Amino acid sequence: RYKSPPFRFKMAAKLAFLFSLVCWCGVIFSVEGIVHNLVPPRAQGGRMFETLVAAEKEAHAKLGIYTNSTANYFQQLIDHANPSRGVFNQRYFLDFSYWNPSSGPVFLYIGGEGPLTQSPGGYLAVVAKEQQGLIVALEHRYYGVSLPAPLADQETLRTLNVDSALADLIHFISFVQETYLDSKPRRWVSVGGSYPGALSAWFRIKYPQIITASWSSSGVVNAVFSFDQFDRQLVNELSPACADAIRAVTAQVEAGWNNPTERARMLSLFNTPNYFTREDFLWMLADSAAMGPQYGFRTELCAAMLPLQKDPIAQFALNWTIPHYGADFGAQCYYSTTCLSSARYSAQWPNQLPWVYQCCTELAYWQVGYPGSLRSQLLTTEYFMAQCKSAFGPATFPNTTAFNTRFGGAAPALTKNATRVIALNGSDDPWQGAAVEQTYSALYPESTAACTGCGHCGDLHAPSNSTSTAVRIQQELISAYMDEWLQA
Fold it and tell me: Which residues, in sequence order, are bridge partners of residue 67?
């Protein structure tokens, strides 16, 4: 249970609450929202992110959705198993736009592997309006400004795990109940996309007495050690010619890497530092290709690579990677073993090293090559393990088998009797192989939106004229299940 704060802190929180009610004005609001938390920071520098943000702004404006960008902070325990280690300031946001204080539920939007800079908006705002609900959004520990300790403090970094993240949510709920809701019992719904989508489901599994229902968008609930299904999904959805074009990029790097002149040329095309290894560089290229279909840009990826030119690597850099993700995408610390392992590059660690750490110690999700894959077969679990041990020590290992035993893996409805969780996927999303892919129970329904451009977390976006029929059906299902479960 949340430990009651000092009187002056409680008064400040209540004054902030009152201020948020009376100052519901454009000064503290934005039409931006959920896209900023769904696209990783490393991919926010180019056309893809700009397109998604523009679409979100237009949809929000038409629907009258305004997100709250006024940050609040509360004192979260650094170590829930050892409270004596102290507290840190964890950032959160509130949206009272649609709330009925007498009977409305509370929607808890869970932040993910990047900064949370405003309340989410999107289809969650539509559902909150339907249910007259309050929206609260909590930034994940070790991302954005919610830092328990400097990232170089590897002893404290050990508190970055799923159990701590779920305990953070419990502590936060108690704080919100006491500070804003006068401790009155409320129905709570957890909401998240991708890794937070998995957290949303795991939260309902571990604390069913706290959470009434869970909305798990592209929730990667199955921690996969060797995730070859990721590329198999990409191969299935791309045209043969487009897939061959991506393979040509991979083959050109593999063939030319040992030539110093050619290696320098290839690195310079992507503004990649020379401390990147061959495998680091291939990992960056593979992620660049994969994120196109993942975020609904399959058509744009193939248009950039077809017809295939004489210099595929230059075509991939100039037509796709740099314009779609920004000029510094190829230099991101996230891909580099040297950068992740040396304090010399610690200024580049925020919002990059923490997710690598979570994969190295618990979740893996390692996207590996295989004969016929788009990515290089040099990208193996051995490569990722070596990177992890270099960055975090020789004992680092993600025991995904034990983790999935605890939380239910790909079928939590069967293995954990999980109920009142709705799982949503998109047909173009390569992360489907780590998600719940079929309905195992009437109380754990799964829906996959099938269309060109149906990607990662599509159901969370605000509906617009360009929203596919498949995603609109998903969103109607979400509303229907929220109606049913919140009235149960």
Answer: 30
